Amino acid sequence: MAATDHVDFEKFMEGVNRRNPHQPEFVQAVQEVAQDIFEFIEDKERYHSEQILRRLTEPDRIVSFRVCWEDDKGDIRVQRGWRVQNNNAIGPYKGGLRFHPSVTESVLKFLAFEQTFKNALTGLPMGGGKGGSNFNPKGKSDREIMRFCQSFMTELYRHIGPDTDVPAGDIGVGSREIGYMFGQYKRITNHFTGVLTGKGLEFGGSPFRPESTGYGAVLFLCHMLSHRDDAIDGKTLVISGAGNVATHAAEKAVQLGGKVVTLSDSDGFVYDPDGFDQEKIDWVRRLKEENDGSLSAYPEEFSNAEFHEGKRPWQVECDIAMPCATQNELCKDDAKTLIDNGCMAVVEGANMPTELEAAHVIKDAKILFGPGKAANAGGVAVSGLEMSQNSARRTWEQVELEQMLQDIMKGIHERCLKHGEQDDGYVDYVKGANIAGFKKVADAMLAFGVV
Ligand SMILES: NC(=O)C1=CN([C@@H]2O[C@H](COP(=O)(O)OP(=O)(O)OC[C@H]3O[C@@H](n4cnc5c(N)ncnc54)[C@H](O)[C@@H]3O)[C@@H](O)[C@H]2O)C=CC1
Ligand SMILES: O=C(O)CCC(=O)C(=O)O
C-alpha cells in the first residue's frame, strides 16, 4: 500500500465508532491515543501495512460471565463479571479489577486499552488487561463481600494464571477483596502462585504496593516541575477522591512540602483551608476503609473545614490539580476555571479523569499535563515487582521498593520527554506517553507477524 493510501485519522475513528456502538468511554480512550499515533506513524510504513493500531483496538478476548451470590437475607443476587484481555505482546495480561455499579464493558475496554500503554511505559514485561463487575460494595456486609468475591473467582480462575493474566485491585477492590479472591483461587486450583497482586504481606504481597500509585503520581509531578526548574514545596494542591490513590497522593505531597486543601467522594468535596496533615489523612482513610463513611462528616471532626455537597473541587484556587477519583470527572469548564485561577499543572492519579475537550483546553494553555497512563503507573509497576518477588519466592524490603519506584517513575518521565518535547520547549506529556507506550507494544507485535 502506498503511503498516500493510508486510512486517515477520521476514517479510522469512524471505524472504531461503528465497531463499538454504545461504548463512549472506549471510543474516547482510543481517540485520545490515536490522534498522537497517527502523527507518529505518518512516515512509518510497517505500522500501517501491518494494521498495528487497528489490531490494538480489538481486545485479544473479552470474557463475560454471571456472578451469582447469596445476600445476608438469603436472597439470590445476580451480577455480571468481565475480564478484558487487551494485549499480551510484551508480557502476561496485567491490570486491576473494579467493583462499582458504573462498570460496563465499555469502561473495562477503555481501562484495558489504557493499561496496555501504561504497562509498556513502566519498562516491565506486562501486557494490558482489566476486569470487574457492576457489583456495588457500598453497604454490603463483610460476609456478602466475601461470598461475592468467591463467586467471582469461581469463574475467573479458569482465565488467569501467573504467566497468563494477573489481576489486582482498582475502585472497590482493596486488600480485603484480593484476600478473598486469592483464597478462593488457591482452594479451587490447589496452587499457591502469584496470580493476583496487592495481596496481604503474609501470603506473598509486596510491601509498598498500597502507597505506590499515589506516591508515584506525586513523584511524576515532581519530575515535571523540576524539568521546569520548579518544585512542589509551598504549592497548593487540589485533589479529588478519598480512596487509595487520593489519600496516598495527598500523603506524599504533604511529606514533600505541598499543601493539600481538598479531597472528595461521590457525595461532594471537603475544603480544608488549613491543609490536610497526616492525622487528617489517616482519619479519612479510617472513615473510608472501616466505616465506608461519607466525607460530609469531616467538618464535625475538623472545624475549620467546609463540605460542599454534590460538587467537585475544581473551583478551589490551586497551583496543582490532581484528579484521583474516576473517569471523566474534570470537564471543559472545570479546566477553564483551573487555568483562570492560575493552576500550573494537572496530574492524573485516576484513569482518564479528564474529558477530551478539557484535555485540549489544558494543552492549549500549555500548562503541565501529566496523563494517567504515565503519572499513575507506579501502582502497576510495584505490582510487576510483586510478580517478580512471587516468581523468585522472595520479598524485597520497603526501602528497596521505594528506590525501584523512584527509578521507574524517572524512567517513565524520560520516555515521555523523548517523544513529547516540542520545538518551543513545551513538553506534551500526553503525546510522549502515547508514543512511547505504543512503540514498545507495536514493535513486539511486528516481531510476531500476523497473529
Ligand atoms: N488502586 C490503584 O493502584 C490504581 C488506581 N488507579 C485509578 O485511580 C482511581 C481511583 O482508584 P482507587 O483509589 O484505587 O479506588 P478507591 O476505591 O480506593 O477510591 C475511589 C474513590 O473515588 C471516589 N469516587 C468513585 N466514583 C466517584 C464519582 N463518580 N464521583 C466522585 N468520586 C467518586 C470514591 O468515593 C473513592 O473515594 C481510579 O480511576 C483507578 O482506576 C490507577 C492506577 C492504579
Ligand atoms: O496493579 C495492577 O495490576 C493494577 C493497576 C491498575 O489497575 C491500573 O494501573 O489502573
Automatic annotation (TrEMBL):
SUPFAM superfamilies: Aminoacid dehydrogenase-like, N-terminal domain, NAD(P)-binding Rossmann-fold domains. The record marks D170 as: Important for catalysis. It catalyses: L-glutamate + NADP(+) + H2O = 2-oxoglutarate + NH4(+) + NADPH + H(+). Substrate binds at K94, Q115, K118, G169, S383. One of its GO terms (molecular function) is nucleotide binding. Catalyzes the reversible oxidative deamination of glutamate to alpha-ketoglutarate and ammonia. Homohexamer. PANTHER family: NADP-SPECIFIC GLUTAMATE DEHYDROGENASE 1-RELATED. This is Glutamate dehydrogenase. It comes from Erythrobacter litoralis (strain HTCC2594).
